[in-house]
Amino acid sequence: MSGLLGRVGAFFFEAAESPARPPRAPAPEADVAPIHAAVLGAPASVLPVAAACAGELRARAKAAAALICIWRPAGVMAPATSPESEPEAPAAQSPAGATTPGARRLAARLVARDLTATACGRLAWLALDCDPAAAAGQFRRCMAAAGAPLVLAVAGPRPKPFEPLLADLDLCIAVLPAEIDPALRELAVASLPAREHAVVSPLPPGPPRWAAMAGLARLRSLPEGGP
User: Fold this and answer.
1) Residue 188: pLDDT band by 50, 70, 90 thresholds?
2) Which label site among 25, 54, 171, 199 has the fewest CB atoms less than 10 Å from its CB?
3) 31, 44 in Cβ contact below 8 A?
4) Separation between Cα atoms, residue 160 and residue 165, nearest integer Å
5) Which whole number is the average pLDDT over 63-79?
6) Is 8 helix (H, G, I), strand (E, B) or coil?
């Protein structure tokens, strides 16, 4: 038995006289500025795409988490939650399940600045004021405080007070059905004010949307030459 224990011990543990391994040098952090983007579309489809966009920007920046700020016009209710429909964004508290330390730190940083945020998966979420002017001010505060990739999800027709804000962003994405008339698609792209533009289709219901909402999916179709 002692011989067996010795062999097992040799497999799992180094001998005491073995030289200690030199500690690994920490990987240098990427010197990549956080990307600020906006995703615009109908309330029923914009949030999962915004979450997938945040996941892609987080990965490209090698950041621990990303932030999504949601704006809905007054009177527009959040979609109902069901396995067949769009999952709701976390609002008041983190849901049960895995939430990364990076997302928790990001949410806590915003909460410390009186910006009500919550963490879910690899993302932090913040619901903006229904009033467009107040929402624009909140979003600019988030830009200054987040220190992470940030996505503004505009769930409805974009209001006029958002125009200067959108013009300052790195990327604007329009969420449009794949079968939309090409002329309407071109018109939508031409009206986007950010430096880079993209048009994507809504994510299919079910697992793709749920994965996106947890920050586990990436919108890999974003322009490579931009962010």
Assistant:
1) confident
2) 25
3) no
4) 10
5) 83
6) helix
